[in-house]
Design a protein that fits this description.
There is one protein chain. The protein is mainly β. It is 12% helix and 39% strand. It is elongated, with a radius of gyration of 24 Å. It starts with a helix and ends in an 8-residue tail after the last strand. The relative contact order is 0.13.
């Protein structure tokens, strides 16, 4: 596949920041059905990447193209020849056809191949034209500016994802996910036979992708929940919370979540890796199922008749549904579902 066909939805930023390098992520990965994948793809999350044909001519664009050409001329002659070989069909061409523009992040990117199986992007500030960094491809970007890259795209390369994000003036990698069970090559196809995207974000923190399961020797669909574990997502123990008690023991994990409770009895949720994903704030909550949970901010306990006070049930007039990040879901007749 030519680089020009990939660059409109792939990118990667690889500048490390010592101040934020401790950030990590938690992954919840599951194989899902084609139907679930197709339904999620209808509402995919996409960052605003301006394609080359829509980038306006201006002084900064001219500066970026000029500096890109100058950088290319400074590359070792042997490497330059390798680049020419990779893109022999369409030439290097220092023009807008190799540019990406991310207006919200104020970035222009010039895409240039490194080898037959990897590309780079030279990033420039879109206001000053100043060179920022060199980065590898590919990636998809969610609406919050989180970047993901599959490293390498030869036919036998494993699924090897790197996750990056921007905080202030820094771009940094905060986690990686690698599995030799799955193949990374399908991510480079813009669409599969059905027309669906082969990789996309949904709800800004859930990554969907199509890949090949080497164990089963067939194509599969994966759903990957990506939860950062920096200062916004502390561990259960560090936050001072405890597992919610259910059936004479700690709450069980359901749909990648279990319930936690604070010192005042408020209930929230943690991931199966003990990361607090939804702070305790609810009066009563049910376990997650199919990506949602029923919760309420108020209510009271009622005794189960005939149990001699041993069993209780929750009563509330204000039940509603939340997603796996704690956002309220607008569902018709939500208290009855």
């Amino acid at each position: 596949m030519k680089p020009g066909y990939r660059i409109f939805w792939i990118m990667l930023i690889v500048i490390a920041s010592a101040a934020v390098a401790s950030a990590q992520a938690v992954f919840s990965v599951e194989q899902i059905s084609y139907v679930e994948y197709a339904n999620a793809e209808k509402e995919f999350s996409c960052y605003n990447v301006i394609p080359a044909d829509s980038i306006a001519d201006n002084e900064i664009v001219s500066m970026v193209l000029k500096e890109s050409q100058a950088k290319f001329e400074r590359i070792d002659s042997v490497i330059r020849q390798e680049i020419y070989y990779v893109i022999e069909a369409d030439g290097v061409g220092f023009n807008k056809q190799r540019l990406l523009y991310l207006p919200e992040l104020k970035l222009y990117g010039f895409v240039i191949p490194d080898s037959p199986h990897e590309d780079s992007i030279w990033w420039f500030d879109s206001e000053s034209g100043k060179y920022i960094c060199s980065a590898a491809c590919p990636t998809v970007i969610n609406a919050n500016g989180m970047y993901v890259s599959q490293i390498g795209y030869d036919c036998d390369w494993p699924l090897d994802l790197r996750f990056f994000r921007r905080e202030g003036n820094d771009f940094y990698e905060f986690e990686s996910y690698k599995s030799t069970q799955y193949n990374g090559e399908p991510l480079y196809c813009q669409a599969e036979e059905s027309g669906l995207r082969t990789i996309f974000w949904h709800d800004n923190n859930t990554l969907y992708l199509k890949t090949i399961d080497h164990n089963r020797q067939e194509s599969v669909y994966l759903k990957m929940l990506v939860v950062t574990t920096d200062r916004h997502y502390p561990s259960v123990s560090k936050a001072g919370y405890k597992p919610y008690k259910y059936d004479n023991g700690d709450d069980y994990v359901s749909d990648g979540r279990y319930r936690i409770v604070d010192s005042e009895g408020k209930i929230g949720y943690a991931t199966q890796n003990n990361v607090v994903i939804i702070q305790p704030r609810f009066a009563f909550v049910f376990p997650f199922k199919d990506g949602r949970a029923k919760v309420t901010d108020s209510g009271h306990l009622e005794k189960v008749k005939g149990s001699d006070g041993e069993y209780h049930y929750w009563v509330s007039d204000n039940w509603y549904w939340i997603d796996k990040m704690g956002n309220r879901l607008e569902i018709d007749n939500e208290t009855k579902r």
